[in-house]
Write a structure and sequence with these properties.
alpha/beta, 6-stranded mixed beta sheet, 17 strands, globular
Length: 305
């Protein structure tokens, strides 16, 4: 069996970041005729549900660039790859060291709270306002003590200890079970300054950065090394086989930007849209039409007519 996996922004969505009704109808027709389809996106569940309203997505989806695999029908998180509170605290300190405060995408049970800082530039304001417009319930103001006392396991005795060595009896954090990623939007100088610092101090973390084509400026996402779309696809296929009784033998993925690179590397047939970056096109087996032309759906339809 074959599975089609598509990125959303600048791949499946139109030029203003929406899924046209015509696309939703075409996608439902394909799914109803037996096409196995899902999405892999940097977006989170509330935004995905808003965009894909009316689309009968039957299979689990990949969100937050691979940090989460979720069953949209039950909202249950099937798998996640987080930073861990200790590395998250160190990453947050790096941002503070250069005078920046990011959005913090967290995990608490099946919920994914999104903590926002003081919004000091138009990129950060846009990211926040886009969530407000879509009535994203994850938004909460960043607590001052979110990483005040991170706890880590002391490997010498199995007890939990603070970074200063004092033994602790609990690991409970009132706000977080884990951190999925940090997001900051700003100038290219700011983005590369924090990139260089985190590469120096936490070289094992995954750093994804790219220009923001909606508002201008640049965006950086810091996550765990395995929180990428390529790694997530391997886990996704296991869940599909186990819970949907589908043995997927071929995978086709569509993408446009750097956060799609590992996804394209991991599938049988990597496809780039015409507006994709040079790097993505170089890793694609085929380059199809522009995302504004509903090229992904036309490609899939051509194989099933």
């Amino acid at each position: 069996m074959k599975l089609f996996i598509s990125d959303l922004d600048f791949t499946l969505l139109d030029t203003v970041g929406d899924l046209p009704k015509s696309s939703a109808l075409r996608l439902n027709r394909l799914i109803d005729t037996g096409v196995h389809f899902t999405i892999a996106t940097a977006r989170a569940t509330p935004s995905i549900k808003h965009l894909m309203e009316g689309v009968n997505l039957r299979l689990p989806i990949i969100e937050l660039n691979g940090a989460i695999i979720r069953d949209l029908n039950t909202d249950h998180i099937l798998d996640h790859k987080g930073l861990g509170l200790n590395d998250a605290s160190k990453t947050f300190d790096c941002f503070q060291e250069v005078g920046l405060t990011p959005f913090v995408s967290g995990l608490k049970g099946d919920a994914t709270p999104l903590y926002f800082p003081e919004l000091k530039n138009k990129g950060m304001q846009w990211f926040h306002d886009e969530k407000i417009i879509r009535q994203d319930p994850r938004l909460s103001e960043l607590p001052a003590n979110l990483f005040a006392h991170p706890l880590v396991t002391d490997p010498t005795n199995g007890f939990l200890a603070s970074p200063h060595g004092a033994a602790q009896t609990t690991v409970a954090n009132p706000f977080l079970d884990d951190v999925l990623c940090f997001v900051y939007l700003g100038t290219k100088k700011e983005i590369f300054t924090i990139k260089n610092l985190i590469e120096e101090k936490l070289p094992h973390l995954l750093i994804t950065l790219y220009p923001n084509h909606y508002i201008g400026g640049w965006e950086i996402v810091i996550s765990a090394a395995q929180a990428n779309k390529g790694f997530a696809i391997k886990s996704l296929l296991g869940h599909i086989e186990q819970h949907h009784n589908l043995l997927i033998k071929e995978t086709t993925a569509f993408g446009d930007s750097s956060n799609d690179l590992e996804m394209l590397r991991s599938v049988t047939t990597p496809i780039a849209v015409a507006n994709a970056t040079t790097e993505i096109k170089a890793h694609a087996h085929e380059i199809i039409g522009h995302h504004s032309e509903e090229a992904v759906l036309s490609y899939i339809e051509a194989l099933h007519t």
